[in-house]
Amino acid sequence: MSLKLRLILIVNFLLFVAIFIGFFSVVFTSKNAVRSEIESSLKLAEFSIKTGIQKNPDLYLFQDNLLGLKDLDLIRHLSIQLLDSDGNIIDQNKKSNTEVHIPVWFQNALDIYSKDLEILDFPLMQYGDQIGAVKVIPNPIYEYDEIWQQFKNGLIIAMLFFVFVNFSIFFLFGKIISPINLLIQGFRNLEQGKYKNNKENFGISELDILRVKLNQLTIKLKNNDERIHELNQKLISIQEQEKKEISRDLHDEIGQSLAAIQVQAAAIKTSRKANAQADLIIRTTKDLMHQTRNLIKRLSLSIIDDLGIEDALIDLIKNWSRRTPCKNINANVDLPDSKIFKFQLNETVYRLTQEALTNMSKHSRPKEVLISVQRNGNVIHLSFMNNGLLKRTKKTSGIGILGMQERVKNLSGSFKQSTYKGFYKIEIGLPIK
């Protein structure tokens, strides 16, 4: 359901509730007002009849037994009748307007919970005999008609207001919330990979805040997209480079060893020193196995299953320290209860350490290296420091750092890099789940 339709329904509901409450308020107020007015008229009529006609019947009944009630056509609340001794009406007040148009439901609503007004009956006595009576009947119908006319006018105004409000919501509110459509289009552009900023000022503070946030999100997603694209391109380049290195290793090391074994095996056939040739083949095959094992280590992480993550890291750092010219290396690896770690966590810790060491070899010439991989509670903290920073022409992060950040992000960890007093430092926190 759209916001506009929902707002129309809510406003209409509130209008109907207001009209409903207003109707019962009018009914209750009008009912009491009409009753009070008619009761006051009854009291006045009662006073007049008692003090006038009943005490002086001869004064009022000297002409054809009439009281002149026909001339009282402006009295609308009461119907006054003069009855003879047999109860027949011989005189009564006329109504100047006898046509009323009140819906039955409205009249019933006014009569609800109302007590019937009392009919007054005043006997007329002459010489000790009752010669007639004056009857006063309350008649609120004309007041009801007046209230109905007022209520009908109010209802017409309410309906006009109802139409105006709906018109305003449908058209004016539609223009007011039109910026929301632009925001929706902005999100659709993000889904389609179109990174367009909206610079139009909406004039509504809340929507302008959303616009600014959307623009910030657009810039961030665009940068991330470019970063991922750059990462993919560099990964492809690294894969091709690794293939070349593996091919070269197979050709230069393993291939040469196999060729040497072949030559040495052929020499056994003609040599008188078979035992010496066999020993040479054994040494060559051992070198070949060592080269193959190192190559497998580079391509897989079976060493973690064989040694455990703690010993695998120690072996990795030792092998790296043999190849690096830096001799001042301080390494601290302490991972108690590492057997309960998941393989993905072990793999990430190993690859992060491997990448950090590779970056030191490629991008720095350190004289001092500090390595720390420790467990603290439910977090593994990794720290790599070296003082061999080289000046970079570009300020962008290399593929190694990007790869490390992606690995840390996959495990919901923290990554921080900084420089302090000539040392470049990488701090990583990985939660143990």
Summarize the structure.
With 433 residues, this protein is α+β, with helices and mostly antiparallel strands.
Can you put this structure into words, describing what you see?
- The structure is a single chain.
- The chain has helices at 3-53, 57-60, 104-111, 141-176, 178-191, 205-270, 274-299, 302-307, 309-323, 343-363, 399-410, and strands at 78-84, 89-92, 120-126, 129-138, 329-334, 369-376, 379-386, 414-420, 423-431.
- It is of the alpha+beta class.
- The chain has three domains: 3-176, Beta-Lactamase (2-Layer Sandwich), CATH 3.30.450; 195-242; 307-433, Histidine kinase-like ATPase, C-terminal domain (Heat Shock Protein 90), CATH 3.30.565.10.
- A hairpin with a 2-residue loop joins strand 8 (414-420) and strand 9 (423-431).
- The model has no long low-confidence stretch (mean pLDDT 77).
- Helix 10 (343-363) runs antiparallel to helix 11.
- The longest helix has 66 residues, at 205-270.
- The protein contains eleven helices and nine strands.
Low-confidence stretches: none
Number of helices: 11
What name is given to the CATH topology of the largest domain? Beta-Lactamase
Q: State the secondary-structure class.
A: alpha+beta
* CATH architecture identity of the largest domain: 2-Layer Sandwich
Q: What is the CA-atom radius of gyration, in angstroms?
A: 52 Å
Q: What is the number of strand segments?
A: 9
Largest sheet: 5 strands, mixed
Sequence of secondary-structure elements: HHEEHEEHHHHHHEHEEHEE
Distance between the ends: 42 Å
